[in-house]
Amino acid sequence: MKQQELREKLRARRDRLEYSQEYMGAKLGISQAAYSDIETGKTKLTEKLVTQIKAIDKFEDFFQEEPDKDLKSFGQTIVEKWPWKKKSLYLIIAIIGWAGLDVVVRAPADFMRGSGAGTEQQYDVITGMIGLGLTLLVALFIYWFFWVKKW
């Protein structure tokens, strides 16, 4: 079940039981505004939050339709979510990185050649320095995007 469907179902159940957002928030140990953020989608439903909601009176059976399938993937990195062999992910990362770096490393020299400034030796030194710096930045970004960022 998708997040949007879960939120709509949660609100419908709360309305049917005539529970206020203040009541639900108090039961969850959060403010009414924080609970409202859950229903509007500003705050994602997590496994921990689902467990807390199930503890509220008349919500014990609320998530019987196997929400864990959708909820387990929230807050995971791409590497943790990747369903196929990790080698294929690493190959994709390497290809993207190589193609990106090829463009990044060649761009400064091509720009300088087009402007007519400098010598070939200067192009190589500048290209090397910029390429090294940008390589490090791209490597850090790839690391962050695939291994640190939670999706």
Task: Give a short synopsis of this structure.
This protein is about 70% helix and about 0% strand. It is an all-alpha fold.
Please describe what this structure looks like.
The protein has 151 residues and is mostly helical. It folds into 2 domains: 3-71, 434 Repressor (Amino-terminal Domain); 78-148, no CATH class. It contains 8 helices and no strands. The protein has helices spanning 3-16, 21-28, 32-40, 47-54, 68-71, 78-81, 86-115, 120-148. The longest helix has 30 residues, at 86-115. The model has no long low-confidence stretch (mean pLDDT 77).
Secondary-structure-based class equals: mainly alpha
Question: Rg, please?
Answer: 25 Å
State which percent range the strand residues make up: under 5%
Work out the number of β strands: 0
Note the gap between the termini. 17 Å
Order of helices and strands: HHHHHHHH
Mean pLDDT: 77
**Uncertain residue segments:** none
